[in-house]
Amino acid sequence: MKVNVQTPHFVADQKLINFIQKKMDKLEKFYDHIIYADVFLKLENTSDRQNKIVEILLSVPGNELIVKKQAKSFEEGADNCAHSLERLLMRRKQKIRASA
């Protein structure tokens, strides 16, 4: 799966990008027709500790799934997004099986 990581206003290190790639590759276990993933890493300009936003747009045939999470670190946010996408993909797979 092609993963496109976008980080406006800062440069992400390779370790973070590899971590996100690994999380996105695990999603193919739940649904094997994923086309691509766009990952947006944003820093919110607040004094709050949870100022990192991870937004993932996952393209599957006929639909796009979007998940957005806010956390203390980008790794934690990516992990939370991946768990939400797992649930969405399993639900989608069950709907497709039920209608077939």
From TrEMBL:
<protein>
    <submittedName>
        <fullName>Sigma-54 modulation protein</fullName>
    </submittedName>
</protein>
<dbReference type="InterPro" id="IPR003489">
    <property type="entry name" value="RHF/RaiA"/>
</dbReference>
<dbReference type="InterPro" id="IPR036567">
    <property type="entry name" value="RHF-like"/>
</dbReference>
<dbReference type="Pfam" id="PF02482">
    <property type="entry name" value="Ribosomal_S30AE"/>
</dbReference>
